[in-house]
Amino acid sequence: MPKKSNHIRWIIAVAAIVFVGVLIYSSYQETRTRYEVCMNFKGATHCATAAGANHDQAVRSAQEIDCELLANGRDENMVCLDQPPSSVRPVQ
């Protein structure tokens, strides 16, 4: 019986290592690209940096941060998000 429990322990240990590896890899893939995005809204400007798996996700995330800080309420936030950014630059 002891041999069977040792096999189960090894299987659980290997599965845990694989699981942690997948988590680390997927986390790295989600934050590969970083961009600084500046938004102008109602005469105010804010710049935020965000990361994403690709250009569009990183830029949209930074826009959401900017508009959350520039807009007053949900309706203004939606109007702000519909506007193009005043500047977008990659961050190393």
List its traits.
three-stranded antiparallel sheet; 59% helix; single chain; 24% strand; 3 strands; alpha+beta; 3 helices; 2 domains; 92 residues
Descriptive account of the structure:
With 92 residues, the protein is of the alpha+beta class. The protein has two domains: 1-30; 33-90. It has three helices and three strands. It has helices at residues 2-30, 55-70, 74-82, and strands at residues 33-41, 44-52, 87-90. It has a three-stranded antiparallel beta sheet. Strand 1 (33-41) and strand 2 form a beta hairpin. Helix 2 packs across helix 3. The longest helix has 29 residues, at 2-30. The mean pLDDT is 89.
Please outline the major beta sheet: 3 strands, antiparallel
Global shape: elongated
Give the class from helix and strand content and strand pairing: alpha+beta
Adjacency order of strands in the biggest sheet = 2-1-3
Q: What fraction, in percent, of the residue positions are helical?
A: 55-70%
Distance between the termini: 55 Å
Q: Which regions are unreliable across 5 or more consecutive residues at pLDDT < 50? A: none
SSE series: HEEHHE
Number of distinct helices: 3
Mean pLDDT score = 89
% residues in beta strands: 15-25%
Number of domains: 2
- What radius of gyration results from the CA coordinates? 22 Å
Give a count of the beta strands, DSSP E runs of length 2 or more: 3
